[in-house]
């Protein structure tokens, strides 16, 4: 049985629309993060300087979770950019993988707000961690689906490059899984677990030689 040119994988749809939509979604999500930062109104004008100082100090956890989410979104955007440097085409299933990925990207501002407003609540931190875990798993699925049998990538793509993409992709969801465990024990410290992501990705084991 012969395969028609329209069914052959090399004649799949281009990725331009995915990349354009993804860039826009990331830009919006990263911008919305700053809207989570706010200060309560000061009670009197006589002690404004002291109160402002105390309010800013009291909101440090919000500034941290904002910066953390911004950097994590940047890491995911870089990962997406790296993946689509090698992904040359798409298909119906691949499109839906990316649509679900975008759904959890736009959820990040909400989960960030939840974690920032309730830093001592395990459920708030767990929701934030779960959001990042699912997002990380979707990025792995995107890469595995595209590279399996060189489905959506060039046949010449080095298997070592494919394996490296899987290893790098596994870092974020594994760290998020660890953060979920920590959030059940001590919610206030779970966010610091994510500092492991840039540290681990800097190791030679996770970098292309």
Helix-strand blueprint:
Layout (H helix, E strand, L loop, with lengths): L15 H17 L15 H11 L1 H27 L5 H14 L2 H10 L4 H26 L11 H27 L1 H4 L5 H6 L8
Helix pairs in contact: 1-3, 1-4, 3-5, 4-6, 5-6, 6-7
What does this structure look like?
- The protein is mostly helical and 209 residues long.
- It has one domain.
- The protein is built from nine helices and no strands.
- Helix 4 (92-105) runs antiparallel to helix 6, helix 5 packs antiparallel against helix 6 (122-147) and helix 6 packs antiparallel against helix 7.
- The model is unreliable at 1-10 (pLDDT under 50).
Order of helices and strands: HHHHHHHHH
Give the number of DSSP strands. Answer: 0
Q: What is the approximate shape?
A: elongated
Number of H/I helices: 9
Counting helices, strands and paired strands, the structural category is: mainly alpha
**Low-confidence runs of at least 5 consecutive residues:** 1-10
Strand content: under 5%
Q: What is the mean pLDDT?
A: 87
Radius of gyration: 20 Å
Q: In which range does the helix fraction lie?
A: 55-70%
Give the biggest sheet.
none
Q: How far do the termini sit from each other?
A: 42 Å
How many separate domains make up the residues?
Answer: 1
Overview features:
about 210 residues; mainly alpha; about 0% strand; elongated; disordered N terminus
Structure, briefly:
Helix content is 68%, strand content 0%. It is built from nine helices and no strands. Helix 3 packs antiparallel against helix 5.
